[in-house]
Design a protein that fits this description.
binds copper (II) ion; alpha/beta; six-stranded mixed beta sheet; 508 residues; single chain; disordered C terminus; disordered N terminus; globular
Amino acid sequence: MKRNILKLLGAVAVAALFTNVLTASEAPVVATGKKVIDPEVQGEEIAVLTQAPNVPPPITRKHPTKVIVHLEVRELTKRLADGVEYVFWTFGGDVPGSFIRIREGDQVEFHLNNHQDSKMPHNIDLHAVTGPGGGAASSFTAPGHSSQFSFKALNPGLYVYHCATAPVGLHVANGMYGLILVEPKEGLPPADREYYIMQGDFYTSGKYGEEGLQQFDMNKAIDERPTYVVFNGAVGSLVGDKAITAKVGERVRLFVGNGGPNLVSSFHVIGEIFDNVYQEGGVLASQKQVQTTLIPAGGSAIVDFKVEVPGTYVLVDHSLFRAFNKGAIAMLKVEGPENQVVYSGKEVDAVYIGQAAAGGDSEKRVAELKAEVAAEIKGNPKIATLTKEIQIEKGKGVYTQTCFVCHQPEGQGVAGQIPPLAKSDYLKRLNNEEAIRLVLAGMSGEVTVNGKTYNGTMTPLSYLSDDQIANVLTYVRNSFGNEGDIVTAVEVKQVRATVTPPAANQFE
Ligand SMILES: [Cu+2]
């Protein structure tokens, strides 16, 4: 506890230092109102800003112009995962912030507007800016205020922008980052589709998947132990019917950023090879035929590839526990004719597709069922059934993420290796306490299920939350032809208190 307080004090001290630096350098340039005309620019236009995964259209103009950017800061409660909410601080109402696209040589008149409902002052540091703080020194903006500064886009490339108000790490951890593309004079080679994807790590008071409004956890952030690692601000923001799309034969370009604040991304598209990578967001296609490209925190990369065969391609941070346990999964759905020469046509990524589909549908179903509960709440015995149904739907999500790999989609197990859960006489005999203990502590040694003997090992799954274990057991007890009781989170909590504490607290 003492250690935590010291850490927090340290952070506050550094933050204070930062504020002082900014205030000092800010003082001379505030509100001078001076306007310098760049002789090179012709005309004037308002920048088109887009929300991820959309990208503004390529710039066709052949001369620099004056571009006016209006970017609004909003602090908004939004979805981080199914049932999980977080107060995001945003540039443009979304995480990542609006995509800004300008041309090399443009003179940018930047307006940072901080909405009157904001609780915090904010500013902006654009890595594309040459000058103190990348604009931060001139854009410190209180709630209900607007700041203006101008810069010339001297260097082409794909740049991160972010808030740099103290404590900077906190503003970035709350989602204050986005991308600005300064197109080179000669433009980028043509592509059929362009998308905007940005990774970020989030630090919540509750564990992964713990429902409700989550607070920021400073200690996890300092220790670089994110609860969530996601693309475009939420788990599942680019899966299922929200996946990005393309047609066979098209060239897809991804503008990929990494807001951090802490992690470096090993960006990979399962089943594709990047034809070109503009490493670190520079303007040279610096490498060809790349499997995984490294994207620094506060950095970017431009990748492009032609899609040859239809299917679902899964985008991940190849630090795989981030992908499968913290949310760093997105999807590209490609439609069009099969090409048996390039690929035989057998679908391989069933695991990933199953997971995402279950998540999306389950969320809808849970919402429907919750609405039904509200309607039925007045002392109706039907409530019990509905609560059970909610647990089953939620448990299905846990099952497809955790148990599924071993026990298989229909709980059928694997002959000779993994016992079935479907109609398992063993499971049926277990009372709730024994079943909970099995999931928390794992299982090994000889076991007979439905007359067949198995001798394998199931690893302890104590990192799952009380709710997750209650729901998944309720799900398996009532699926695959099984019929059984509800398992409650309270029961799990009680059993957890009796199993070895270190295992139970492993991921807290
Ligand atoms: Cu901020």
